Amino acid sequence: xxxxxxxxxxxxxxxxxxxxxxxxxxxxxxxxxxxxxxxxxxxxxxxxxxxxxxxxxxxxxxxxxxxxxxxxxxxxxxxxxxxxxxxxxxxxxxxxxxxxxxxxxxxxxxxxxxxxxxxxxxxxxxxxxxxxxxxxxxxxxxxxxxxxxxxxxxxxxxxxxxxxxxx
Length: 167
Hints:
The protein is mainly α. The protein is 62% helix and 0% strand.
């Protein structure tokens, strides 16, 4: 009722130190300092953080050879590039993204079952993570001969590991 107690049992309500004003002012100063530094860097040095390829004028008749999506879609782009059929590539791309979404929904069911802690399940999971990062790296590589064949192998391995994990 009276707040925290001390071991001596002495009423310490007169010796309390209020931190509200000090920490509120300090946090506001840090926030505004960060905000002004952020705005200064953004407005004055904004072009120094942009990729140099963005300054090349666009040619509407030629598709760039080194086109690639953002880093978080590179694994899906590697899967898309490894399939020569356009419709098959799009179907595999949608399945690859849908499976990641479905795993996030069913992970709570696996959390309370004993299969999540089995060594085989861990091996499959970490193999899937490794294949995911290799596919991400392959998506950033050029669409040349050795990279597309390696991406084809890892695409098959990716879907195989997903099928094993789903069992």
